[in-house]
Amino acid sequence: MTRWRARIGLRTRLVLAFLLVAAVSAGTTATLTYRKARTAILEQAQDTAVSSFRDRVNDMGTPLPVEPKSLQEQLRLLARQGKPHPWVVFAEYGSVRVSSGTSPVSTVITPQLRRAALASPRSGSFQRVEKHGDPWLTVAVPTVFRAGKTVRPTGLVLYAVMPLTDEEANVRAMVTAARDGALPGLAVALVPALLAARSVLRPVRDLRKASQSMGRGRLDTRIQVKGSDELADLARTFNESAVALERSVGELQDAEARARRFASDVSHELRTPLAGMLAVTEVLDEDAARLAPDTAAAVRLISAETGKLAVLVEDLMEISRFDAGAAELNTDEVDVAQTIRKTLSSRHWTDPDEIVTDLPDGIRARLDPRRFDVVVANLVGNALRHGAAPVVIRLRLEPGTGAESRTGSGSGGEGARLVTEVADSGPGIRPEALPHIFDRFYKADSARTRSEGSGLGLAITLENVRLHGGTIRAANGPQGGAVFTVEIPLTGREVTE
């Protein structure tokens, strides 16, 4: 049933329901009308025949004992006077059987009618029967002696047998007319069904369009309310919900904008004093060896924490640029392998026991060297801090197979893809942490309250990859360890030598 309803639209279901109601109503009305009309037609014919036959029998004088030939002539006279159709009249008197027809007895007269006639000598009795599929009316009227108020049966019983084929034909004609009129009636009912479905579905369509508009971010969308029925109540509820949602989203956006502006302003204001602090800590670091041990330790701690603060401020400034949409991509054609080696060398990550590279030469692509450097540095630094050596860096070029879509960020385009993979040999990432690994300030290890990073490294990596139109995803390798894979579409940009 659910699949059937899913395949058939609401309009079709409404029209079918309307037509079903119309068909049931028409069928019920036709059935009741048929029964009433059939009863009226048959009862009219029955009442006319019974009354007429009873009157004729009462007016007829029949001498006793019965003379069959004389009685037959009387029966034929009665038969010619039959109403509303000619009768066939039968007479039974002891063993005497006489009729107005060719057969002295009738197979339509039942024993029940004979018993009923003897039980009601004054009024007689009647019965409708079917014989070989044809309807018949049988009337039994006993003849009586009347002496004042005394009424005694003579023993002679007269039976009138009348076919009801004409009445039955009229009834069948009514059924045929009702049946032939059903299809045009349903066709006529289709018009109001479509109009009713349209009036019901118009608010539903408006609600769907409004919902789609709100889904695209137009929170000021409203529905025009017409009427006071349930659909109008639904439209009013939608509008009230939209107003509340717009207000809530507006407040959240204002709060987020204030928070971003605050972070940006604070970061900007901190850069100047931090620059001075860094210069001082560098001088103190140079003289730390000549200081007392406790003083030297304090100086080095201040220097380290100042460095962390500087990194945090720079990262906050960078993430603020992404939030404000001010981040720009300045691309240049570079040798990707050499760019990665330069990143590793500038950060002194050259120990072969810690860093293993698989960087084929000759892959050139248009990238933003500074932002690609940040991507590689953040991933390798994250692997060294939270994973275990050796950290493996692989570079490859994959041919395109059409439009790509990846989880994590962005969406790859058609054509070839530059794939950079960074894998460590540590314990990997907990499954419950994988969906949040690129969230800002998220800590995969809840026991780790402090680290050398700002907590924004992977979030900044994500934004830089998105800026290139690429994707990044995190997973655990089959042999353990975390694996970060960056894919950047290079349609029409790569040159393989």
Automatic annotation (TrEMBL):
It holds the Pfam family HATPase_c. Its EC number is 2.7.13.3. GO terms for molecular function: phosphorelay sensor kinase activity. SUPFAM superfamilies: ATPase domain of HSP90 chaperone/DNA topoisomerase II/histidine kinase, HAMP domain-like, Homodimeric domain of signal transducing histidine kinase. The keyword Repeat does not apply. It catalyses: ATP + protein L-histidine = ADP + protein N-phospho-L-histidine. It comes from the Bacteria. Residues 198-250 form the HAMP domain. Keywords: Kinase, Membrane, Phosphoprotein, Transferase, Transmembrane, Transmembrane helix, Two-component regulatory system. This is histidine kinase. It comes from Streptomyces bingchenggensis (strain BCW-1). The lineage of its organism: Bacteria, Bacillati, Actinomycetota, Actinomycetes, Kitasatosporales.
